[in-house]
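Deliverable D4.2, example record:
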Amino acid sequence: MAAYETTIDVRTDDLGRSGHVNNSKFVAYTDLARDRYLASHGYGPDDLDHLVVRLEVEYERALASLTPVTVAVDVAAVGETSVTLEYELRDAEGVVATVTTVAVTVDAEGSVPIPDPLRRGLEADLETAT
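Output generated by the structure prediction step:
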């Protein structure tokens, strides 16, 4: 079971000319899922500055409907300043893509340690996943 799941509505303008969801929207869905996941740990968008420094997307099949997408989020690794998250995007028919991101917590000077309360939550979710 995933550490966190959220449902995201597919909007009409997410579909490209070919009638399927544009690949950039998959990244936007994971961004939203990550924000919601961090908020579930008490860190909203204004509470934690972070940058995605690595992004890998594996497309399984086209997403060609306005059916909502479920995004499951799991913690794969927790470093001093970074967290690796794995996402599974699904519609009613199954998996449409898997995504991995590495995000680094930052301030104006550069990378900073993940706040201790968040680290504890991430590590707990990591233990649950393994």
